[in-house]
Design brief:
The chain is of the alpha+beta class. The protein contains nine helices and nine strands. The longest helix is centred in the middle third of the chain and has 20 residues. InterPro entries: Homeodomain-like_sf, HTH_AraC, Tscrpt_reg_AraC-type_HTH.
Length: 249
């Protein structure tokens, strides 16, 4: 798989209700079993098995994962801006639901087969390009774009490499003063603390849902010395505690 893309599989045996789920990168969400209900503002999407939701970068969704026959399974492929088209406007982008289609089934399977067979990265990149072409062809182009907040995206890319770096160090990395960094982020409707916390809890959510790492270690990875305080903040963000969410697996 291309080194700059991230692929995760999410499973549950009971219904999961999550509020304010952040997507720092554009993501292809493909449901394999069960159903995903997603909403953003007044917009709602129902993603059945075999369908895909194309989620723009910097989206915040309310999500319900509903098992069918006792199981829910979905794959999420997160894509950095380098794989996406530049946005034609800074207007907020909306997710796009793609129905089941043989073209996307074949392109998805072709890409997955290459990754699982550990083919050379160049081959996997070409197969990913094929998948993205199919997504655009089937109507997902409006969501499959770089975020309309370019500085926020650059900040998230830097924080992804080192979430603990200070504001002054981050500003130097981006060739600007700290004051300019904060002012330009504010102009995009973002804040450094907000972006850092969103990224850390996005990672924490994935670790709780897809791994077996102890909650205390996940809390430490998010900068919390107390697992209890982390659980409180996690519940404030997502509407459920980490332990309760993991119990749905």
């Amino acid at each position: 798989m291309p080194a700059d893309a991230t692929f995760l599989t999410f499973r549950s045996q009971r219904c999961q209700l999550l509020k304010a789920v952040p997507f720092s990168q554009c993501a292809l969400v493909r449901v394999e079993q069960g159903c995903k209900l997603a909403s953003m503002g007044a917009h709602q999407w129902r993603v059945e098995a075999g369908q895909m939701l194309v989620v723009p970068a910097l989206s915040l969704l309310q999500v319900a994962n509903e098992p069918v026959a006792g199981a829910y399974r979905a794959h999420v492929l997160a894509l950095p801006d380098a794989w996406l088209q530049a946005p034609p406007t800074r207007a907020p982008l909306q997710p796009v639901l793609l129905g089941q289609d043989v073209l996307i089934d074949e392109a998805w399977r072709h890409w997955r087969d290459g990754v699982e067979a550990d083919h050379p990265e160049s081959v996997c990149q070409h197969r990913l390009q094929e998948l993205l072409l199919v997504v655009r062809h089937l109507g997902g182009a409006s969501a499959l774009q770089a975020a309309g907040q370019p500085l926020a995206s650059r900040v998230l890319a830097e924080l992804s490499a080192d979430a603990s770096q200070s504001a002054s160090h981050l500003a130097r990395r981006l060739a600007m003063s700290e004051a300019t960094l904060r002012r330009r982020l504010a102009a995009e409707g973002q804040g450094l603390r907000q972006l850092r916390e969103s990224l850390l809890f996005e990672r924490a959510l994935a670790m709780v849902q897809t791994g077996r790492q102890p909650i205390g270690l996940i809390a430490e990875a998010c900068g919390y010395s107390s697992a209890g305080r982390f659980a409180v903040r996690f519940r404030e963000r997502f509407g459920v505690t980490p332990s309760a969410l993991r119990a749905t697996h």
